[in-house]
Amino acid sequence: xxxxxxxxxxxxxxxxxxxxxxxxxxxxxxxxxxxxxxxxxxxxxxxxxxxxxxxxxxxxxxxxxxxxxxxxxxxxxxxxxxxxxxxxxxxxxxxxxxxxxxxxxxxxxxxxxxxxxxxxxxxxxxxxxxxxxxxx
Length: 136
Prior knowledge:
- This protein has helices at about 30-40, 65-80, 90-100, 115-125, and strands at about 10-15, 15-25, 50-60, 80-85, 105, 110-115.
- By secondary structure, the chain is an alpha/beta fold.
- The chain has a six-stranded mixed sheet, sandwiched between helices.
- Helix 1 runs parallel beside helix 2.
- It starts with 7 loop residues before the first strand and ends in a 10-residue tail after the last helix.
- It comes from Fluctibacter halophilus.
- This is AMP-binding enzyme C-terminal domain-containing protein.
């Protein structure tokens, strides 16, 4: 049985930062599409690289998404990702879901959570990446 995607995303890059804007409630099909497009884009940036993800409009996901995103995180860490800034207003529920899918620290990698894009971009810039807050 083939299911339609639920939820949406937009990807772009600037310098060696890969950006993502997620929205809606995700199912496995959306997560798989995202993972494929994310890998294609990430392979085009210089290493090491960073990721900034806008999660303000993301409305969580089904449990089957966890394994897809965990596998994507593993791939990213193997392919030069060293910093990830997650941007969303304080939400215990989102934090719990994201903590189950994305490690906070591993080797050179570090993830941080911010309630606004400016603070996330400032942190990435401080960490040596050319981050900006415009959603090109």
